[in-house]
Structures are given as structure tokens and as C-alpha cells.
Design brief:
Elements: E1 2-5, E2 19-20, E3 26-28, H1 36-44, E4 49-52, H2 58-82, H3 90-105, H4 122-140, H5 145-156, H6 167-170, H7 178-185, H8 187-196, H9 203-211, H10 232-246, H11 258-267, H12 275-285, E5 293-296, E6 300-306, E7 316-322, E8 332-335, E9 344-348
Antiparallel strand pairs: 1-4, 2-3, 5-6, 5-9, 6-7, 7-8
Length: about 350
Amino acid sequence: MKKVTIDQLEEGMKLAQDVFTESGKLLLPEGFIIKPSLIQKLKEHNIDSVYVEDEKAESYVKEEVIYHETFVAIQDLMLSAKAGEIVDPFVAKEIVNDIVAQIIEEEDVFLRIVGFRDVDNYTYFHSVDVSIFAAIIGKLLELDRKQIEDLSLAALLHDFGKMKIPHEILNKPAKLTDEEFEEMKKHTIYGYQIVKNMDGISEQIAEVALLHHERLDGSGYPLKLKGDKIPLFARIVAIADVYDALTADRVYKKKIVPTKAADYLTKYAGVHFDKDIVQKFLKMVVKYPVGCFVILNTGEIAIVYEENPFNKTRPIVKVVAKKEGPPVLKPYFVDLSQDNKREIIDVINY
């Protein structure tokens, strides 16, 4: 452990002690990995130094770099599509290959990062997260590497058609009218037209933009396909798309916690979504990674200390603060698998 000034603090360093504000409120807990946004937060609170571990969390930094590069790439490509320019997917292909390489080595490697986004850039972050979730599913289904790369790329490009939807509809902070929803549904057709004309993009990849809102019972759009008539890639991306949308803040709707999103997918498994894929996906993804901040139904704020391999929604947590009442002077551990009165109700994103 060593003490460093804020100017010496670097991305990837790991906090060795809790950091508090001048008023005594917990700002960042021990074990948090430093990111640029956190350095800025420390500066805003006039924190001049912190204690960090001697070694960086190198692997986490690598995933963050890949995630950021993917965000920048998809943003550039989507803005090109919006401007009616020719879209070259070469950079996206290269970055997707990096994502897949990491996931093949360790499928949950990006789960700490997905979901950290701002509402204004929702579509871009959503595309990156769906690409990651789709790649995870591809590995769980034991697809070969080339298939996973194609699947992940298809997921990254699945919402390109939204660039052709009027801004006032795409970012409306209220429920769409029937007329507006009919226009929104056209993003599947617009997206297919854009993606299929990209250089080197196969029909299998392009059709995901068209078919990711199809549902097994025929209630989806635009073609109302049923069951196995919906291609595998589209069935996978449909699940990744809905899960990510439910667990993210949007202009018209607050996010829900992963367990509630899991309940939704489970309810419609076999009706809207492929049941086998839903079960495999949720078993992997619905968990709270070590180091993430959570809020309990008791108002306690905790950091996830250790995962529970038998029930990933009920980890061991370290309570470090409370939303109301006296401060927590001495943090304490709670094993949620043994405590039925407490449950996680939200995740705090920094």
C-alpha cells in the first residue's frame, strides 16, 4: 500500500482504503478500480491524496480500453450512417475480434464494465453492451470463434437504423404515441438496408438488424416470424437487447436491477425468447461483480466483497454506509445467501 497525490493517481490503480468527503460521507470504497471519471470526482470533492495498492489492476484496464475503443468506433460509424455517408466497418470488426478474444478466455471479463453509461449516449453504449452480451451467449452455446465474432459484430450493428429515426421520437422523454411507435419500428428496416450495404458484411450479420425484435410467438416485428423461422443470431441478440435495455436508464424509463430483468426474461422464455438461451445467459450474467457498489432494501450501501457461486444474486457484501441515519463507523459483512431479510435493490454507477 502507498499514498499518492491526485495528480499521481493513474487509471487502473486500486484503492487500498475507503475515501471519505470532508463531511465524513463515504465517497469511494476500498477495492475500487480508478477510472478517469473517478479521478475527476475526487478532484470535485477536494481530495488531495489517497491510498492505493502497490500494483495496478492491469486486466481491468485492458477491458476498459477495449470498451472505450468500441464505444468511439460505433459512435463514429453511426454518425456516418446518420449523415448518409458510406460506412466502413473495418475498425468495428477489429475491435469486435478483441472483445471476443477476451470473452473466449474469460466470459465474464466485461461484466464489471457494462451498464456504465449516460442517457444522452444510450444508443452507442447499448450497442457495445449488446455486442458483449451476445458474445458471451455465443461462447455459452459453444459456437466456434468465427461464429462468435460474426454474432458480436451483428449485435454491435443491430441498432444502426435508429440513426434514421427523428431525434424527437428516438429521445422522447415519454411513452411514444401509436403513430410514433410505428415510425420507431422502421429502424429494423432502415438498419438492414444500411448494414447489408457495408463492405464485407454477410447476410447472416445484416439480418440481425432486421429481425432482433421478432418474437417466438409471432408477436414481434417487422415480419412477425415464429419459432425457428427466426435465425439463431437474431434470437440471441433479442435477449441481449432486452436485458440491456431493462437494466439501463433511458430518457423515458429508469433502469431495473438485474434480478428483475431476469424475472422478465424468465417469464417470457419460450413465449417471446428462446428458453434455452435465456437460461444459459441468466446463469452467467445476473450477478454482482466484486467491487461494485449496491444498495440494499434496508437503505444500507455496500460493496460486493465475494460472489456466491450457488446464487450469484446473493453475494457477500461489505456494508460501508447508509442512505439515511447515522454513518457506518465500522464496516461490516453480510452474507446475503444467509440473510433473507436483505436484498439488493440497485447498483450504484460511478
